[in-house]
Specification:
2 domains, 30% strand, 375 residues, FAD/NAD(P)-binding domain, alpha+beta
Length: 375
């Protein structure tokens, strides 16, 4: 039986960052993934992910976002590849919408520099957007996007360079242990370690059944539509956008390659029983709400997609993350990222590493504990 200091189960966005963090700290660490990351079967794919700081979900995330941004920059420097691209983020919605109220509150609490515009001003500055007249607009200039597959790939490469062992196409079947050690049985063998970190996304509940009441899986779709104007290539005129409409919350990224504009619906989606029972084909019913949004709120985009993808949101009941130590085993669980977690990967990795090494962390992650569901 091979023995390690820590075993990381699941090596997508969160797991690759955690494997790197532990390896950089000099631990003997093993990462196990049932596929070969980066892959398109979980939650860490789709070319790009938004990173933003005026966080409408809750002001408590903002300090973590500052730290995550800095760590992405450090990883970028270490690997010599571009991982993060700064870009304006335009958020719109009715004045009392979740996105506008939440973003402005986070900016107020943490002193973030944002700019509030009228819909007319927004349409003039960003001609690719047809902002509805009744929408308020908030612009964050400290946002951007991450090259998601490249992030995973480079984090894993750096982790191995720092001494980590990475086992791919290997399925974890069972986790057992005592208060001081864990044993991980897979379809290839058995491994032991002083601790484990579970970052397996939608596979979390199959490994840890006691999390089934806390996490459900939602199937989501992404689309890439052809741009019809050079406006979408212009960094000043084509921002990242997030619009809170009466039909849902829709997001998109400007043209970054191949003349295509990426967009999707953050709300909605079909509940599925598990990550291995997902319809990977995209249907007309998947496309219809995004197409309707495009025709109403965007300019210079053809309304028939060139590409599409399916991804999975591991949803908690309140939409916030789960980051905590297991009740009885030396395991840290990072799960339930609810469609907005990827940008946090390096700071979640830091917190997980602190928790397995010291039993505590100075990072402000207490609000993510599963204890909030105790009542």
């Amino acid at each position: 039986m091979s023995t390690f200091d820590v075993i990381v189960i699941g090596c997508g966005g969160m797991g690759s960052a955690t494997l790197l963090e532990l390896a950089q700290r000099g631990l003997r660490v093993l990462g196990i993934d049932r596929h070969t990351p980066p892959h398109s079967l979980g939650s860490s794919h789709g070319e790009t992910r938004i990173i933003r700081k005026a966080y409408f979900e809750h002001p408590d995330y903002v300090p973590l976002l500052h730290r995550a941004w800095d760590k992405w920059v450090a990883t970028e420097s270490a690997c010599g590849k571009t991982l993060l691209e700064p870009r304006d983020l335009v958020m719109t919605g009715p004045a009392d919408s979740e996105v506008i109220v939440g973003a402005r509150e986070s900016a107020r609490v943490h002193g973030l520099a944002i700019e509030n515009l009228s819909s007319v001003e927004a349409r003039k500055r960003y001609p690719v957007l047809h902002v509805p007249d009744e929408h308020s607009v908030t612009v964050e200039h400290t946002a951007g996007f991450l090259w998601v597959e490249r992030c995973v790939e480079q984090q894993l490469r750096l982790a191995v360079q720092h001494g980590a062992t990475l086992n791919v196409n290997e399925t974890v079947l069972e986790i057992t242990g005592t208060a001081n050690a864990v044993e991980i049985r897979t379809d290839r063998g058995t491994y032991s370690a002083g601790a484990a970190i579970v970052t397996s996304g939608p596979w979390t509940t199959s490994l840890l059944p006691d999390y089934k009441s806390l996490i459900a899986i939602r199937r989501k779709t992404l689309f890439w539509f052809p741009s019809t104007s050079g406006h979408w290539k212009n960094k000043e005129q084509a921002p990242i956008f997030l619009m809170d409409t009466q039909n849902g919350q829709f997001y998109g990224l400007p043209e970054v390659a191949d003349g295509l504009v990426k967009m999707g619906e953050h709300t909605g989606g079909e509940w599925v029983s598990g990550p291995d029972n997902v319809e990977r084909r995209v249907s007309e019913s998947d496309l219809a709400p995004v197409q309707s949004f495009l025709r109403t709120c965007l300019n210079f985009v053809a309304d028939e997609p060139m590409n599409s993808a399916v991804c999975l949101y591991s949803m908690t009941t309140d939409g916030h993350f789960l980051l905590d130590r297991h009740d009885s085993l030396p395991i840290v669980v990072a799960a339930g990222f609810s469609g907005h977690g990827f940008k946090f990967a390096p700071v979640i990795a830091e917190a997980c590493s602190d928790l397995v090494m010291a039993g505590r962390t100075k990072l402000p992650v207490g609000f993510l504990s599963k204890n909030r569901f105790a009542n």
